[in-house]
Amino acid sequence: MNEQAMIKLLNGAISLEYGGAIQYAQSSVLLQGTYREVHADLFKEMSDDCFNHARNLGEYVVGLGAIPTVEPAPIKQTTDLTEMLNYGLEIETKALETYSKGVELAEDNVPFRVMLEDMAHEEYKHKLELQKILNKLTLQVPDAVKEVRFKQA
Questions:
Q1: How far is it, in rounded angstroms, from Cα 79 to Cα 72?
Q2: Is the Cα torsion angle 113, 116, 120, 122 positive or negative in sign?
Q3: pLDDT in tens, the chain (153 residues)
Q4: DSSP assignment of 11-60
Q5: pTM value?
Q6: Of the chain's two ends, which shows fewer C-beta atoms within 10 Å, N or C?
Q7: Which residues 6+ apart lie within 8 Å of 97 measured at CB?
Q8: Alpha-carbon span 148 to 13, nearest angstrom
Q9: 20: closest CA among 79, 81, 69, 89?
């Protein structure tokens, strides 16, 4: 594993996570209207997840003998719920791409590879949830399964 390349990748990921933590926290307090009760908690949870990810990544950077960054990625603000969710989807997509690259970079370093695979998995779940909320998935239901009948025992 190229340690300098890994430090650079991890610090980039920390920056993304810090930016996400701030952006989601800001969205949770700016959100108003009918959907506030539902989505404000989602944004708070996502903010907490981002901050925990940044802290975890920082431990790995220190383990490589470097200093973790404290600079967040650019933060987007809006008072529109759909834009907030789309901005979140951008964060999750970029983080998933970063962690996927990190898995390749880790090569046969099992602790780093497993940590990055776990992070990629979490980001994938966040991305999928936001895609569902935003109705960005196209689901194909074959005609044969549009009606489901259970057989009597």
A1: 21
A2: positive
A3: 899 999 999 999 999 999 999 999 999 999 999 989 989 999 999 999 999 999 999 999 999 999 999 999 999 999 999 999 999 999 999 999 999 999 999 999 999 999 999 999 999 999 999 999 999 998 887 766 667 677 887
A4: HHHHHHHHHHHHHHHHHHHH--STTHHHHHHHHHHHHHHHHHHHHHHHHH
A5: 0.89
A6: C
A7: none
A8: 44
A9: 89
Q: Looking at residue 148, what is its pLDDT?
A: 67
CA 46 – CA 43 distance, rounded (Å): 5
Domains of the chain: 3-134 (1.20.1260.10)
How far apart are alpha carbons 73 and 53 in whole angstroms? 14
Q: What are the structure tokens assigned to 147, written together?
A: 């009606």
